[in-house]
Fold this sequence. Notes:
By secondary structure, this protein is α+β, with helices and mostly antiparallel strands. It is built from ten helices and seven strands. It is elongated and about 60 Å long.
Amino acid sequence: MKHYLKNALAFCLILALCLGISACAAESASSVPAPSVPTEAELPVQETASVQEPEPEEPVPDAAAAEDPSVTAGCEVLKNIYGRYYPGTAGSSLNAAKYAAMLLDWYVSIEAEDSPDRIAKVKKTGESFASGHDLSPDAETENGVPIDFPEKFSAIWSTAMSLTFGDTAVLEDAGYTPQGSWDALDADMLFAALYEGLALERPEHVRVYFPDDQVMYLLTADVPVYSREASYILYALKTAHVIPRETELLSCETDAEGTLHLDLSGEFRDYVCRMGTSGEALTIAGLTNTFLEATGAQSLRLTVEGKELETGHAIYDFPLSFENTFSD
């Protein structure tokens, strides 16, 4: 019996000790503050490692889209005209002749025997140059000097026409030797295409009718002029060597019937009298066609120093009309 009571008492002591330990643990746990949960605004900003975007690869040039060497060469000549040629300054006529010849050499050197392909490259050259330059008349260089590219380009065009009609002696003074062979038709097509590509309005010009080298028919080419007054029409004919440079305009009037009365100096009579039949006929036809088309007159009465023109082949005592027989 004593043994039983002793065991029961030991059990009660152990139970009491366990309950006391549990109570202390609970009290200790309640005294430890619960961790605070941060709000979204208090959350720290996580810095992520910066990832650098890869450098774009250099595009591989497409052979078909690469710049045409002929276009590049043409743009170089235009660049010189744009920044280095100034009409009216010392040596400007020599520079004009050089740049005009360079353009003509470039044109005939373009590797395109087919005319439409060649013209397409010329237009592309004008477009390419215009896209990178201010071609307006009031554009200025870095030092404030006006460029007036349209005026410059017109002067180069006029010089080119003179060169193609045989006035090439100036090139020797300019120190330039032509690299190719070109004629007035080349110059006419070249500048017509360049003006279109550059998106510039072509200045006033006269279409001149002139004999071919074999004196068989008439060819045409546009010659730039300041206006379509009779004196400038005569200048265009002189440029094309249809009439001698010494020829003077004595009078030019259009009557009510639409007939143009043109009176020239004796140099013109002397010039045609030295010609054969074909040369004379083509010269008269070229002069007539040029004046009639430029003025819009219906016919032309030609006199020399107030008298009817008389040569060894014909007496021109009648109104001359536009001649289509010899036109190409």
